[in-house]
Amino acid sequence: MSSTRIESIAAYDARYPLPEGVGSDAVHxxxxxxxxxxxxxxxxxxxxxxxxxxxxxGNRMVCDLIELLAAPLAGLEIEELMSDFGQFSRQLSDHPxxxxxxxxxxxxxxxxASITNACLDLWAKSRGVPxxxxxxxxxxxxxxxxxxLRYLEDELTRDTAEDMFRAxxxxxxxxxxxxxxxxxxxxxxxxxxxxxxxxxRENARQALAAGxxxxxxxxxxxxxxxxxxxxxxxxxxxGDDCLLMVDANQQWSIPQALDLCAKLRDVRPYWIExxxxxxxxxxxxxxxxxxxxxxxAAGEHVPNRILFKNYMQARAxxxxxxxxxxxxxxxxxxxxxxxxxxxxxxxxxHAGDMGQIHQSLVLFDHIALDAPVVFLENIPHLRxxxxxxxxxxxxVYRTPQAPxxxCDLIELxxxxLKSTA
Amino acid sequence: MSSTRIESIAAYDARYPLPEGVGSDAVHxxxxxxxxxxxxxxxxxxxxxxxxxxxxxGNRMVCDLIELLAAPLAGLEIEELMSDFGQFSRQLSDHPxxxxxxxxxxxxxxxxASITNACLDLWAKSRGVPxxxxxxxxxxxxxxxxxxLRYLEDELTRDTAEDMFRAxxxxxxxxxxxxxxxxxxxxxxxxxxxxxxxxxRENARQALAAGxxxxxxxxxxxxxxxxxxxxxxxxxxxGDDCLLMVDANQQWSIPQALDLCAKLRDVRPYWIExxxxxxxxxxxxxxxxxxxxxxxAAGEHVPNRILFKNYMQARAxxxxxxxxxxxxxxxxxxxxxxxxxxxxxxxxxHAGDMGQIHQSLVLFDHIALDAPVVFLENIPHLRxxxxxxxxxxxxVYRTPQAPxxxCDLIELxxxxLKSTA
Lengths: 421, 421
Description:
The structure is a homodimer. Chain A has 2 domains: 6-128, Enolase-like, domain 1, CATH 3.30.390.10; 172-412, TIM Barrel (Alpha-Beta Barrel). The first copy, chain A, is built from 17 helices and 12 strands. Chain A has helices at residues 59-70, 78-82, 85-93, 106-127, 131-137, 140-145, 158-167, 172-175, 177-181, 197-209, 224-238, 254-264, 281-291, 305-313, 330-343, 358-369, 410-413; strands at 6-17, 32-42, 47-54, 183-191, 214-218, 243-247, 271-273, 296-298, 319-320, 376-378, 392-393, 396-397. Chain A is globular and about 60 Å long. In chain A, 40% of the residues lie in helices and 15% in strands. Chain A is of the alpha/beta class. In chain A, the strands form 2 sheets. In chain A, strands 4, 5, 6, 7, 8, 9, 10, 11 and 12 form a 9-stranded mixed sheet that branches. Chains A and B meet through helix 1, helix 4, helix 12, helix 13 and helix 14 of A and helix 1, helix 4, helix 12, helix 13 and helix 14 of B.
């Protein structure tokens, strides 16, 4: 294996306008999906790509921060960098000029996500393996050295983290069958907020025909009757066996959430997603108690391992929707996976990466940590921009085989580079 | 009163390098104090200034966001704007292009702080009164219309907030004596982290001679013995009657905090400030229980009312160090004051504004909400840049009399404008 050294870093502000209604929720009526992209060029014919998601003009700022934060990567050899990446990541996350803007949240943390994901992409490509293979080939010690476990000392030390991986080594083999079967997906794109009832029905029929057995509906309307009507409509159409999730995108107060969850009970939602503000840990905990047996999914706006620790300690969520584009990349995602394992909670990542990275991470969670197989969100709208779009067939993610994190973007690969950096 | 209309908005990136050691803590060895400044020009000979604090190059980004977010202010009449400012503020805080970078935290929220503070400055100047007078002259209904109480419905509705102000109207008169006496200060500048022991001793002697009866020491060193030695040194020098606070600037894990707080008990600190990560609400709650009768101060990195609600519900802090430069400005500060009043907790603001705005807010807290008088942080390092620096005499803030929020900066008043926008 020849040595791979990072020679230059560049950020790209890639924006993808969407057709009407696509991606809409109770907050974002007409979102633009944007990737703040980190590109690493090396001394080899290897270029790495890291992404994080934002929704609009703020993407420019994340790109500026990528260029600022990633500067120390220049000249580093990838194996050396990744041998103590947790320490490196901690330093970036405590940048003395930027920490005040967080800490460990906001635009700087999103920039760190993109940078971290690029480093993992480069590492996997330099070894010629897809991300899930890279991670499974690491020893427990190597895995833990990727992580910044600071502020988790009351829950998770380096030793306990290593032990958790070590304890699952012997039984890994039997869980590797998932690689051939593929990981189940679910369809988020059925019930965007802006779609009318006809469109939701049509999408649901198509999704069921395509093999999906779990569908999501956006709720959180200022007109709760609309939400209830559409939820019942979807349950009727999909039948009793299909899982149905509802997503309020933080639009409810605690009293509203209590009211609406009671009214939604008949629809038997598999989960209630983001019922209220993502910082309201104790609000979620109160809801979780009150609406049982309904369960709560949250995480796409939970910015770091410390808040996830609080969510878990407070028994405030049932499905952990961590996102390696919201957290400080793949490494903090793995940290949250360890916490989830400790608390017996399933990882059901939010796909800010359109599933490209998480398709590897859920395989890793299952095989390396014996995480339960649930399903992975499928959002197909950016497929045409990806060099290796996830292959979802019969509602199942086919195990990716291309080296890296599957985040290379067609427009950045074809000269001239569409750079707005 | 002639109508005052906002004609243009500009942001200024004002940076103030500090002498060696000044402002240093366990995280920031050589900070640069920066204000991200909002300037509102009007159809009158009135210009308003709003500020938020950051520590370095990230300030530029907050300025960019000010210009983006504040654009809708152009053309608005100030009385009209402030008659429903809570709704206006909510709209800015949910900007669909920026909300993903928060929500309600990070650079966008800091920008909103600066913008909000500029609006309040203009309102007070247009009425020819200092901020505390402006606020005291508002009716309970007008006050509550300044606020965005969303996500607090389980603790604080508009009606209960109005009732809380109304309940204190009759007894206001007796508390107005504070205006003549002035509000006590405490000296943060004694024990910056980078000062050597001699310098700390010298500063402490000067602070005591100047009339201060409360001093703060920065701790959180990687060498806990240094922290303990300096804390004992300061207690010996200051005597038993002086209040002594220690500030760990988030540097301890929960186990370290438990250990160090036990060791610091002999020094009888009045509070332990920021013992661990500001997102670790339940960690603070556990500490609060374990270290009693020692008490916890926190808030300078608590970004919004929702996390403060969680801190209070969890009984995780004893002194509320809200900062109108970290929260979305003066209006969210008042919201947190209402929560603190409900929970019987004292407001002891963090002075990201160098005390310029908070000197009015603590007077308002006491007179309008019967908040207890504690003391206000005094950080004198930017005095020479302020048109109306706070007057602190014999350790007491003299009640400010100049119209507005006292944030006008000398360099921005004297032509040519030092603009880097």
